[in-house]
Amino acid sequence: MTTDHDPALQEVGEDRAAASDPGRLLRARRAEVSWDFARQVAHAAGTPLGAVSRSLSDADGLTLAAPLVSTVAVPPVDRSAMDGFAVRGTGPWRVVGQVGIGCADPVRLEEGEACGIVTGAAVPADATSVMRSEDSVLLGDRLDGPGEEGKHIRRAGEECKAGEQLLPAGVTVDPAVLGLAATVGLNRLTVIPKPRVAALVTGDELVHRGPSGPGRVRDAIGPMLPGLITRAGAVPAPVRHLPDSGADLINALDTTDAELILVSGSSASGPADHLRPALSALGAELIVDGVACRPGHPQALAQLPDGRLVIGLPGNPFAALVAFLTLGVSALLRMRGLPLPSLTLTPIPGGLQCHPRSTRLVPVRLEPYGAVPVGHGGSAMLRGPAAADALAVVDPGPAEAIAARLLPLDPGARPWAV
Fold first, then answer.
1. What is the radius of gyration, based on Cα positions, of the chain?
2. Long-range contacts of range 395-400, CB-CB < 8 Å, 24 or more positions apart?
3. Is residue 234 within 8 Å of residue 195, measured between CB atoms?
4. Do the Cβ atoms of 388 and 364 come closer than 8 Å?
5. Tens digit of pLDDT for each residue in 370-388?
6. What angle in degrees, to the nearest 10, is found between the helix axes of 7-19 and 22-29?
């Protein structure tokens, strides 16, 4: 598709032409599953990796495999929330000392006494409040100011108690989680490691430097995949380029050491599309054989006998991107121990043409009043996705959609829905 007109309209015409040939229609439709079902199946096909112990410095971006439980109370003692004075009773007070941040045995206060204190220092046991420096008036050792009971004291166990569960398993470790773990004295976390993903890009016509030319096509999928894999929370292996050879593809699939293997350019049914015969030769189970979506319908998902997953990506760049966001991200979420998120609904003020049987994935820009298509959404085009904020998921139907769900283009972004 190389024009800017609505691809759904052209495909509706193609479907009507196919309807005049029942055999052609059957071949085109018999194996496809719905887009939503494909996501669910891919998520179910993933297997969470085994739990490992990681230092805090190595746990960022991983998933908690066990609840985060505090081993201590935080804070362990009553602490001052401000620089100022710890006071006992009502003022005025006589200042009798100073409590520093490292003082393990604070002074004892009698009624009408006070001591200087800094933020985070242990509050004397008999103190009734802490008064901020800026609220105090000190003349010699005589202190005046407000002494509201309990003010500016962080009580022992205020944030958590020893043995309290702070976060459940399944939470993605981010900087705040790392800080919380350090706060409660942990040095390591039990986490699910990142899956390894290998990408095999096939095609004798592909070039890897310079522009496309007659009979030659610049590879746009290979440069795209490592960033997508990384943003999806996985570890990418270097992209491998293969010729259009069934034997080479079988060998690569058989020897690649990764939990998930992406194969680009061999997922359709043409003479150079060797993925399905290769999977059959290796005894793989074909789980998804086509998805009713536009673009990206030739995508496939299979499982090799040893448990490794293989995803077939179409050879057109936008179609390959859609397939990765559909099947790849869903499988990787499960491998990382994460649920499949729901997608939020947003208005489409101008409406979007529905496909009668297939889900459309349309690049859109997000505005305060809704989602606006950016155009250039053909299966071979990346101009639209590159300018978009998200993909509008337009469900099949007979007319136009005035609302659609949003699929993040960045697989690492938190979804807009809860």
1. 30
2. 395/354, 395/359, 396/292, 396/354, 396/355, 396/356, 396/357, 396/358, 396/359, 397/354, 397/356, 398/354, 398/356, 399/354, 400/351, 400/352, 400/353, 400/354
3. yes
4. yes
5. 999 999 999 999 999 999 9
6. 130
**Chain segment 99-115, per-residue pLDDT in tens:** 988 777 678 899 999 99
The backbone region for 334, taken as left when phi is positive above 0, alpha when psi lies in -120 to 50, beta otherwise, is alpha
Average pLDDT, the chain: 89
Contacts of 410 (CB under 8 A, 6+ apart): 231
Is the model's pLDDT at 30 over the cut of 60?
no
pLDDT of amino acid 209? 87
Contact (Cβ atoms closer than 8 angstroms) between residue 86 and residue 217: no
In three-state secondary structure terms, 93 is strand
The phi-psi region of residue 297 (left if phi > 0; otherwise alpha if psi is between -120 and 50; otherwise beta) is alpha
Question: The tokens of 219 are what?
Answer: 């590879």
pLDDT tens-place string over residues 167-202: 999 999 999 999 999 999 999 999 999 999 999 999
290, 224, 231, 259: which is closest to 27 by C-alpha? 290
Q: Two tokens at 339?
A: 């649920």
Task: Write the DSSP assignment of 197-212 as a string of letters.
Answer: EEEEEE-TTEESSS--
- Looking at residue 271, what is its pLDDT? 62
Cβ–Cβ under 8 Å, residues 200 and 262 = yes
Supply the pLDDT for residue 22. Answer: 33
119, 81 Cβ separation under 8 angstroms: yes
For position 5, what pLDDT does the model report? 44
Report whether 311 contacts 299 (CB < 8 A). Answer: yes
